[in-house]
Amino acid sequence: MITKQSEIGLIGLGVLGGSYAQALSSAGYEHITAVEIDESSVALAKEKGWITKGGDDPKLLSDCDLVISCLYPGVFVSWIEEHQDVLKRGCLLSDVTGVKRVICEKINGILREDVEFLACHPMAGREFRGIRYADAERFKGANFIIVPTEANSEEAIETMKTLAEDMKFKTIAVLSPEEHDRMISFLSQLTHVIAVALMNCNDNTDLARYTGDSFRDLTRISRINEMMWPELFVLNKDYLVSDINAFIDELTDFREKILNEDTEGMKQKMIQSTSRRACFDKERN
Amino acid sequence: MITKQSEIGLIGLGVLGGSYAQALSSAGYEHITAVEIDESSVALAKEKGWITKGGDDPKLLSDCDLVISCLYPGVFVSWIEEHQDVLKRGCLLSDVTGVKRVICEKINGILREDVEFLACHPMAGREFRGIRYADAERFKGANFIIVPTEANSEEAIETMKTLAEDMKFKTIAVLSPEEHDRMISFLSQLTHVIAVALMNCNDNTDLARYTGDSFRDLTRISRINEMMWPELFVLNKDYLVSDINAFIDELTDFREKILNEDTEGMKQKMIQSTSRRACFDKERN
Q1: What strands, in cross-sheet order, belong to the sheet with B7-11?
Q2: Residue ranges per structural domain of chain B
Q3: How far is A13 from chain B (nearest CA, A)?
Q4: Residue of chain B whose Cα is closest to the Cα of A271
Q5: pTM for the complete prediction?
Q6: pLDDT score of A186 more than 80
């Protein structure tokens, strides 16, 4: 079991790695080590008191009881392929990636047998990159999803639950990789595709001065990290493409109702959307 | 020219009519008359001191120098057909409807020659109906669009500018009916169609507890007034259907890039959406 005195390792000090370092140090974890190739990020984390050790050498992690990769999916897999020999026997490995079926399969396929991998997804990403945008406060309204496979121990699940509680996540849930990826496809990936497509379908910048809150809210996430999302979309493409198709079908159906001036049909759709949307109100969840 | 002592008439005391009554009375307009068939709305407006006279008889408006219809488009046209004989010779007629080409054509086609109609669109609608949701505070961040045709006088345009300033609208702009309808199709109608379609494309209410801000922001407007919007969509269907088609084309293109694992192509689209979205930031407008 992990305690506040355990050695915790982080791989990557970007916006999420930095926020983890901040949240864990605030929660009283005493030994936090970060491996990060960007020196200035390491320096900043030390200066803020978020980490006790840091540098670009993977060997820094060799005493860690828990190591959390805060890398993008592909980089995480490569890192494990190259550097997993530095991990301590019996250590617990976790991550923060936004897709899980492929990651669980790839990591479990290459990982040493004496290291356990438990996938996790802190749903607190943001459109900005780098430790300068790290902000553990954002965890307070966010969901933390633990995504075990049959290979995982109860102890590992309990450890990550405790860690998420200590980092002040609002809700902690356990989902299978399939459930996770299906949920993330609809709630997160599809919405990002929609926002990007809306922004790109028309050179609309001359309309900016007339913009109201509806358009702003809908397109906020079209300001997007282009280094991360294409990879996440590809790694979840079966579910995502199926969601995009269902959405296009629904749009097409709505368009036909407009063309046919079928106001009654539109009304029914709006009554349904209004009633479904009420289930998503913040107060209710 | 209208002054604070002029007789101002409102037709309809719904959420917008009520907000107009509130904003105008707060601005010091001394004589505000409302025609509204719902007695309780009239009573509430009187109780709050927003109107000086009110009732269901159109004749109440016979002394008004300015009459503003706060009715839905079709009801507005019918009202003019039936009751325009009560309007004072030389009075200015305005409205609040969300589509303009059809309204200008229809109203100007039937209106008495001694009454001038100047279309206006206060872009401050909300998803709730009725005077109980009236809130003139919402005008402070909102746009007011004046939509003249060749038939309008400069004096009428100046009058409505002054009125919008007095009601504390943030930005006042003048657009032709075509420019207005094209802008509203893209910025407002298309976004509502998207939100409704997203909410309806999947029975997703079991996912509510995992919802983050992205999905909530994108679907906020799927809680929608089904009595008003179908009519607005139909009255603007040429522009709206063309915008829906452009959006579906862009979505389809994005879907193909996911299927082909074309991460470079997706990156380019995200770089474009990020840079365009920056033009819509609140601070910049």
Answers
A1: B53-55, B31-35, B7-11, B66-69, B92-95, B116-123, B143-147, B171-174
A2: 7-175, 180-284
A3: 23
A4: B226
A5: 0.91
A6: yes
Q: Residues A127, A224: contact at Cβ < 8 Å?
A: yes
C-alpha to C-alpha distance for B38 and B34, rounded to whole angstroms: 11
A2 is written with which tokens? 């992990």
Cβ contacts (< 8 Å) between B232 and chain A: which residues? none
B contact test, residue of A170, A185, A223 with most B CBs within 10 A: A223
As a residue count, chain B comes to 285
- Binning pLDDT at 50, 70 and 90, where does residue A284 land? low
Span A180-284 CATH architecture: Orthogonal Bundle (1.10)
Domain formed by A7-175, architecture? 3-Layer(aba) Sandwich (3.40)
State the DSSP H helix or E strand holding residue B19, giving kind and residue range, or none if neither: helix B15-26
Token couple for A273 = 């959307």
Q: CA neighbours within 13 Å on the CB side: how many for B40? A: 3
> How high is the mean pLDDT of chain B?
94
Say yes or no: B223 contacts chain A, CB-CB below 8 A.
yes
DSSP B129: -
Q: How many CB pairs under 8 A join A and B?
A: 280
Map tokens 């996770």 to a residue. Answer: A180
Q: Which helix (H) or strand (E) covers residue B275, if one does?
A: helix B263-278
CA-derived radius of gyration, chain A? 21
Per-residue pLDDT at B283: 58
